Amino acid sequence: YMLLFRLFAFLLVLFTLSIADTPADKKFTERLRYIERTVPKITPIKLRKWIKYEKDFILLDVRDPNELNAEYMKISRGKLEFVAIKNKRLPQNRTIVVFCKAGSRGALATQLLREYGYKKVYNLSGGLDGWLEAGFTIETPLGTFRQVPESELDS
Q1: How far is CA 8 from the centre of its chain?
Q2: Minimum mean pLDDT among 31-35, 40-44, 95-99, 147-151: which range?
Q3: How large is the C-alpha radius of gyration of the chain?
């Protein structure tokens, strides 16, 4: 039993070490939190006003292709440098609102565009999740989506 116990303890230590944050994980998390705090943001309410009053801007979706599709510019975060910047698909003189599902990839994309000289770039606070939490809907070819209140989930 003692040998079995030692083997179990050894495996438990190995498992714990394998899931612990590495220095790279910590650095990435710190950088992401910093970027999320410092990039220019636009609230869902302000973006809704821009849409309502037809402000001239580009809505840039940086989600991956396997996520919902819609009728606006789509360049996944991983291809932003190559497609948008190198191939000049994003004019630098236009206002750009970047979004993703929850806001983190949008923040990274916003920071990247600013580093490449784009001045009027904003990350949608909270991404599509924030948009839904603000009470707005999302129109897709599959239909209209909205956040379902918890009171309706029990029904």
Answers
A1: 40
A2: 147-151
A3: 21
